[in-house]
Design goal:
The complex is a heterotrimer of chains A (221), B (249) and C (203). Chain A has one domain. By secondary structure, chain A is mainly α. Chain B contains six helices and seven strands; from the N terminus they run H-H-E-H-E-E-E-E-H-H-E-E-H. The mean pLDDT of chain B is 83. The chains are: A mainly alpha (221), B alpha+beta (249), C mainly alpha (203). Chains A and C meet through helix 4 and helix 11 of A and helix 2, helix 4, helix 7 and helix 9 of C.
Chain lengths: 221, 249, 203
């Protein structure tokens, strides 16, 4: 009788649905309440410099999602073997490997974008989101969960930079994804130079953060 | 155990070998594809001085058929081998690297755009140019007609000119269209190049000036200097070609 | 002359923070007090000045196409550039460790003020960014060193200025949602505008 109960429990644990509530939360939380950029203040470094246009931003977002997901996965798989003293450098090595892969793929299949993004692909290595997730989550959790966590953080990062780039391209160049909106509508529009400049990115990000924090009620001390 | 030095060293070694291996394999597999991408990119940049390239165009095919290339020095002599005696390929000449040398030591590629029907008939000469914009490097190609007097087209690129202002040299087709039909020699036969004026007023200008870009005078100055510098370097080559043409007649 | 121009450009016009957003994480996290900001800023100058030339040598003599030819002509044409990211980051991490140890041995007082910041620096984007930009821009060794130092100085100026402003802001009445990150972003933007005014002195 008692053994049966135990068995049942184990079975239950093993068959946790592929997308259980807890796992959905792993993906969903970083999108808003626990957003890596606006709440955890991570990974602003390399990303904002490439948000002038939406196209490179999409590529950058995908690259970060890819990197953080798979680095999380690999680190989580080998987490029990990593010597504590050199764990940071091991994490860096794994991240650098994935970033190099992304960069090589980009060079092979989308050379124009490779030229636009330049050094900023390499800077994903020091994107604090990637390192932060490895250290805070992947080192202590199962591979599949870590991957979902990576996906969530990556998406949370991607949507913010995409939002920033939308406003910067729309107001700064008068276009969306290189489609000249104002020209097509026949409305004369003078491009806003401030938005094209890095300063515009700071301002837009500040406004996004403000709006988001009013909604979530989060107050920084 | 996990903290002992031997374990750490072994772990590091395994990681290094593994990571290095993965990257080497990836680089080997993707290498050929990357080479094609880069080739495609260079060739479409060259061709963009004389035609508008869309994604559907078979850039490499057109290039093979219509471009003949050679390399000259600033005395207008053709050079066939580099310093190590290797045969020179005009497409592989790194204009950016040559820019750092003195003009006498530079190699200047020339791309002849030949007629579709008769490959001995040259329609245009496409020449690379390179220089400094406001923020960083700018570069491009200028195409001259077969008399080497009139501009047939230009295409510019830039590293980090201000988007929406200086960056228009590559983003805004209007800018490069303005150069078409302009002359690089004045009435006395002096090479004056084509200059962008300050401001963007849309006024009619003479054959050596084009309208400027508002808010990007510095980039415009860079473009002017770049064109003049390089056309000067090619001048002896122009003279040579012209005298040959005359002799041929 | 070229060197002066690169230095000035790196400090003001192409400031790591205002123009490229590099090193933002620590910039935002450590800019609450002027004294700590100075500590971290000095450490960044220190490390950038060492690392950019160090990575330059690695790039020039190991990674670049045909770079290994100095060992034997056999290696002509070998291109190890695919190892660039991993080599750079490994060297940064190693040098940061090394610097930490040396500083600890040589000058305990300096270690007291710099020490805690050094580990933070290994993952500072400004450092890797400096190294990658140096490659992209094809600098010579001297130019790379000046660029590294200049970028560090620019970074220090930015973080110290921000810290000073934030110290004063503590006593201001700021809308709840803007407190902290939001307002810091806006201030950084405004400071960026001020730094933009140096464009004119590009030489």
């Amino acid at each position: 009788m008692s053994t049966e109960a135990v068995e049942e429990k184990i079975v239950k644990k093993v068959s946790e649905p592929l997308l259980s509530k807890r796992r959905k939360k792993l993906v969903k939380d970083p999108l808003n309440e626990d957003n890596p950029i606006t709440v955890q203040v991570l990974g602003i470094c390399s990303a904002l410099a490439i948000t002038i246009k939406m196209e490179p931003t999409i590529i950058m977002g995908l690259a970060v999602i890819f990197t953080v997901m798979f680095s999380n996965l690999i680190i989580s798989v080998i987490r029990d073997f990593i010597p504590n003293r050199i764990r940071i450098i091991v994490q860096l090595a794994v991240v650098a490997t994935f970033v190099t892969l992304v960069s090589e793929l980009l060079k092979a299949y989308n050379y124009p974008m490779f030229k636009v993004l330049g050094a900023f692909v390499g800077l994903i290595i020091t994107n604090c989101i990637v390192m932060g997730r490895l250290e805070a989550f992947a080192m202590g959790n199962k591979p599949y969960d870590s991957m979902l966590d990576g996906l969530g953080s990556g998406l949370g990062y991607a949507w913010i930079i995409l939002a920033v780039s939308f406003f910067r391209e729309f107001l700064g160049s008068g276009s969306i994804l290189n489609f000249k909106v104002f020209e097509a509508l026949g409305i004369p529009y003078v491009n806003n130079g401030l938005m094209v400049d890095s300063i515009g990115a700071f301002m837009i990000l500040a406004i996004i953060i403000w709006i988001q924090r009013i909604k979530t009620g989060y107050v920084e001390q | 155990m996990r903290q002992s030095n031997t374990y750490i060293i072994i772990f590091t070694l395994i990681t290094t070998v593994f990571v290095g291996g993965v990257l080497a394999v990836a680089s080997l597999l993707l290498g050929p594809r990357q080479a094609i991408s880069i080739e495609y990119d260079t060739k479409s940049q060259i061709l963009s001085a004389v035609m508008t390239i869309t994604k559907k165009d078979d850039v490499l095919g057109i290039y093979d058929k219509r471009i003949e290339s050679l390399v000259v020095n600033n005395k207008g002599e053709e050079i066939k081998t580099d310093s190590k005696g290797q045969p020179l390929i005009a497409e592989k000449v790194d204009v950016a690297k040559n820019y750092k040398l003195k003009p006498e030591e530079r190699m200047f590629p020339v791309f002849k755009y030949v007629s579709e029907k008769d490959s001995t008939q040259i329609e245009a000469y496409i020449l690379p140019v390179y220089g400094n914009g406001l923020w960083d490097k700018i570069w491009g190609f200028i195409a001259l007609d077969n008399k080497l007097e009139t501009v047939k087209g230009v295409s510019f690129g830039h590293k980090s000119e201000t988007p929406g202002l200086g960056a228009r040299i590559s983003d805004d087709p209007v800018i490069s269209e303005r150069y078409v039909g302009k002359k690089i020699y004045d009435d006395k036969g002096e090479l004056v190049s084509v200059n962008m004026v300050k401001g963007e007023k849309g006024l009619p200008l003479d054959t050596h000036h084009v309208d400027g870009m508002s808010g990007a005078t510095m980039t415009g100055n860079g473009v002017n200097k770049m064109l003049k510098d390089y056309l000067d370097c090619y001048e002896s080559y122009f003279e040579k070609v012209k005298s040959q043409n005359v002799a041929g007649l | 002359m070229e060197l002066v121009s690169i230095g000035i450009k790196a400090v003001f016009v192409e400031n790591m923070i205002f123009a490229y957003f590099l090193g933002m994480c620590s910039y935002l996290a450590v800019s609450k007090k002027v004294s700590t900001a100075i500590g971290l800023g000095t450490a960044v100058i220190f490390v950038l000045t060492i690392i950019v030339p160090a990575n330059w040598m690695v790039q020039e003599y190991i990674l670049k196409e045909s770079a290994l030819a100095w060992i034997s002509p056999q290696f002509e044409g070998v291109n190890l550039e695919f190892l660039q990211f991993i080599m750079f980051i490994a060297i940064i991490a190693a040098i940061v460790q090394l610097v930490e140890m040396v500083v600890e041995k040589v000058s305990p007082s300096l270690y007291g003020s710099l020490g805690i910041f050094l580990p933070l620096i290994a993952v500072n984007c400004a450092i890797l960014g400096g190294a990658l930009f140096m490659v992209q821009r094809d600098y010579t060794l001297a130019e790379a060193t000046v660029f590294g130092f200049g970028s560090g100085v620019g970074w220090l100026m930015a973080i110290v200025a921000l810290a000073a402003i934030r110290e004063k802001l503590k006593y201001s009445n700021v809308p709840d949602g803007l407190k902290g990150l939001g307002l810091t972003m806006i201030i950084t933007g405004l400071m960026g505008i001020a730094f933009k005014s140096f464009i004119g002195i590009a030489m």
